[in-house]
């Protein structure tokens, strides 16, 4: 098994597939379904449930639907997650805030973060990465009543008053020194793990690092904006590459079936905090008793799929929205950046 | 038997045997340089992704797209800036240090080794090390600067400081190589010139400008051409430290080629086009330099 950062996998896998040296079994996300489906990189797995003893009805329908392309089951779920709000209880206490009461709205996030920030000690109230992180801004836009792509996926709806308000909110927190300027996802992760960040929206993978570093933290649902609470749901799944032989495909099916058993999925959730997508795991007493898994399972209340079925979703986030956020955080005019980014999205969607 | 005898007669002639000795290098050059070059030229005329799906001939459409692509011009500008500052700095610092350490004393030998150490380190390791040292939040150097009153030193994070930092790191890593070449050049200059000039009352500075520099012209020319060609292809240090940011202020041509070809939408055709344009730029700059430095002399 080859383990590598997502960015490395993104670069190496297509070349390996083109050279017919790709592994038979790969883990990718719902954002990649359109790219890998339209280029016939993954073979459809519609026969998986017939050929194995895995119970299809045990899966949450949304987890299966997220990994479909053109009606075909392109991948089988491996894990489901969203972003969640983490808070550092010790920094809350030091700032005179109740360590057991996290913010539930973005307005409260700003208020609490400003109290926590301490420039002289390099302590920040909240983190907004400019790259290499989950796309928290998609959730922030949604929570304030805005969006990025129209419902039919054919045009940009980024250039709205609601989204402008969201950008100005982020810009204000950076300008006042409450959020670090120009920090990548790795930087903000490290700040949180070092106890220098008060509030941070990130995925379940942060849980183990925070425990190892003995950070006194809490995790809860994403905060609400003026309209709703929102967090982008991401589903990672197992895909079988088109270059796999029949024997390799059969072996891949065996492993996917093994993974999607109650015991294995339960262990994955308990050890890493990922919310369960199998109904049998969600009903498990130990899972129900786990405070962290329970917090992370709140994804069903606020999770949404970003730009479903839009092939350019990843490119929109990485090549348009992240650079837009970076420019806004650097101090550029938010309205100008919003207009420019909206135009870029329209150009991308036309391709 | 006749054929074997003919073959033996053929390779026993010195001129013909030379071809056999050249063959391994020629094969490597053809396989790893000529074939990819020709392939790039051809692919640049196609719309092609890394999965080879939807491949189609588009003629010069990719080239037209490059000329209207603001990110391409930004990458070109960043590359030119990098070369304009990195190459002269590396040569000047390499020359000054080479002049100071040319004589064969124990100290000089030790100093040369120290300055050459960064050259043998991988650029990836150097980049990661400097990224940590210069990090605004956890770096040792910003911490020391804050102690002496210089706050918020951005280095790789600042839009206006990122490129100078990349340049400085590259010069630090590579000037030892230029220094080594120039030391050989300086040691090749006859000592009689210096002795004669001493008799005439010339000091060290006069000797440097009147003897060392003119007689190092060919070596300097070699350093200038090779450093320029290498700098135009700058990639490792940008990839490891800034990834082309902040705000694309350090994105160079090769960085842009890599992102275009190996990140979504994996557009190999367009990436090849930019590679061809970079090749043209390198030829445009290096051929006149070569002609000026070497061919006019002949």
Structure at a glance:
The complex is a heterodimer of chains A (351) and B (298). With 351 residues, chain A is an alpha+beta fold.
If you had to describe this structure to a student in words, what would you say it looks like?
- By secondary structure, chain A is of the alpha+beta class.
- Chain A has a domain at 6-80 and 233-294: D-Maltodextrin-Binding Protein, domain 2 (3-Layer(aba) Sandwich).
- Helices cover 46% and strands 13% of the residues of chain A.
- Chain A is built from 18 helices and 11 strands.
- Chain B has a domain at 78-252: MetI-like fold, CATH 1.10.3720.10.
- Chain B contains 14 helices and 2 strands, in the order H-H-E-E-H-H-H-H-H-H-H-H-H-H-H-H.
- A two-stranded antiparallel sheet of chain B has the order 1-2.
- Chain B is flat, with a radius of gyration of 24 Å.
- The relative contact order of chain B is 0.13.
- Chain A binds chain B through residues 10-11, 14-15, 17-18, 35, 38-41, 122, 130-131, 180-183, 187, 190-191, 194, 196, 312, 314-315, 318-319, 323, 326-327, 330, 351, and chain B through 49-53, 135-138, 154, 157-159, 243, 245-248, 262-266.
Give me the CATH fold name of the domain at 78-252 in chain B.
Answer: MetI-like fold
Helix count, DSSP H or I runs of 4 or more residues of chain A: 18
Count the E strands of chain B: 2
Task: State the name of the first-level CATH class of the domain at 6-80 and 233-294 in chain A.
Answer: Alpha Beta
CATH architecture heading of the domain at 78-252 in chain B: Orthogonal Bundle
Instruction: Please list the strands of the largest sheet of chain A in the order they lie side by side.
Output: 6-7-5-8
């Amino acid at each position: 098994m080859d383990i590598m950062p997502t960015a490395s996998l993104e670069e190496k896998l297509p070349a390996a597939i083109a050279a017919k040296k790709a592994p038979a079994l790969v883990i990718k996300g719902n954002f990649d379904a359109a790219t890998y489906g339209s280029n016939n990189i993954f073979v459809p797995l519609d026969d998986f449930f017939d050929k194995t003893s895995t119970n299809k009805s045990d899966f949450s329908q949304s987890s299966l639907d997220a990994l479909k392309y053109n009606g075909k089951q392109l991948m089988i779920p491996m894990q489901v997650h969203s972003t969640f709000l983490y808070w550092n209880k010790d920094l809350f206490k030091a700032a005179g805030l109740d360590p057991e009461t996290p913010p539930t709205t973005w307005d409260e996030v700003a208020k609490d973060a400003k109290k926590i920030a301490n420039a002289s000690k390099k302590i920040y109230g909240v983190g907004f990465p400019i790259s290499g992180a989950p796309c928290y801004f998609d959730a922030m836009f949604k929570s304030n009543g805005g969006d990025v792509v129209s419902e039919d996926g054919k045009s940009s709806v980024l250039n709205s008053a609601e989204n402008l308000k969201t950008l100005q909110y982020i810009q204000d927190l950076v300008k006042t020194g409450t959020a670090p300027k120009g920090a990548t996802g790795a930087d903000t992760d490290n700040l949180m793990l070092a106890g220098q960040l008060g509030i941070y929206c990130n995925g379940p993978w942060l849980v183990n690092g925070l425990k190892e570093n003995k950070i006194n933290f809490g995790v809860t649902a994403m905060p609400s904006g003026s309209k709703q609470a929102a967090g982008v749901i991401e589903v990672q799944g197992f895909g079988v590459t088109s270059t796999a032989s029949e024997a390799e495909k059969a072996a891949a099916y065996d492993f996917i079936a093994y993974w999607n058993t109650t015991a294995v999925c339960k262990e994955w959730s308990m050890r890493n905090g990922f919310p369960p997508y199998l109904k049998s795991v969600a009903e498990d007493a130990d899972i129900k008793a786990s405070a962290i898994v329970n917090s992370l399972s709140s994804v069903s209340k606020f999770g949404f799929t970003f730009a479903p079925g839009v092939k350019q979703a990843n490119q929109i986030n990485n090549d348009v929205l992240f650079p837009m956020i970076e420019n806004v955080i650097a101090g550029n005019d938010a309205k100008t950046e919003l207009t420019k980014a909206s135009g870029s999205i329209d150009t991308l969607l036309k391709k | 038997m006749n054929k074997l005898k003919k073959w033996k007669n053929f390779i026993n002639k010195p001129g013909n045997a030379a071809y056999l000795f050249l063959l391994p290098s020629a094969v490597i050059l053809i396989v790893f340089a000529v074939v990819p070059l020709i392939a790039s030229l051809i692919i640049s005329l196609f719309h092609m992704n890394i999965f080879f799906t939807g491949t189609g001939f588009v003629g010069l459409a990719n080239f037209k797209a490059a000329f209207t692509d603001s990110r391409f011009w930004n990458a070109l500008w960043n590359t030119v800036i990098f070369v304009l500052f990195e190459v002269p700095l590396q040569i000047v610092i390499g020359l000054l240090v080479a002049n100071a350490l040319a004589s064969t004393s124990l100290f000089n030998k030790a100093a040369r080794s120290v300055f050459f150490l960064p050259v043998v380190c991988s650029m990836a390791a150097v980049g990661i090390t400097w990224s940590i040292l210069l990090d605004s939040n956890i770096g040792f150097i910003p911490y020391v600067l804050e102690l002496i009153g210089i706050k918020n030193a951005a280095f790789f994070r600042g839009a206006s400081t990122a490129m100078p930092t990349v340049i400085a790191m590259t010069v630090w890593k590579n000037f030892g190589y230029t220094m080594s070449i120039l030391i050989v050049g300086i040691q090749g200059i006859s000592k009689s010139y210096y002795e004669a000039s001493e008799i005439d009352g010339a000091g060290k500075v006069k000797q440097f400008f009147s003897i060392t520099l003119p007689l190092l012209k060919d070596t300097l020319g070699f350093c200038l051409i090779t450093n320029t060609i290498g700098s135009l292809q700058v990639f490792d240090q940008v990839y490891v430290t800034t990834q082309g940011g902040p705000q694309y202020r350090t994105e160079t041509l090769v960085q842009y080629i890599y992102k275009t070809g190996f990140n979504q939408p994996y557009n190999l055709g367009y990436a090849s086009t930019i590679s061809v344009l970079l090749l043209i730029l390198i030829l445009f700059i290096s051929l006149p330099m070569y002609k000026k430095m070497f061919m006019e002399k002949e």
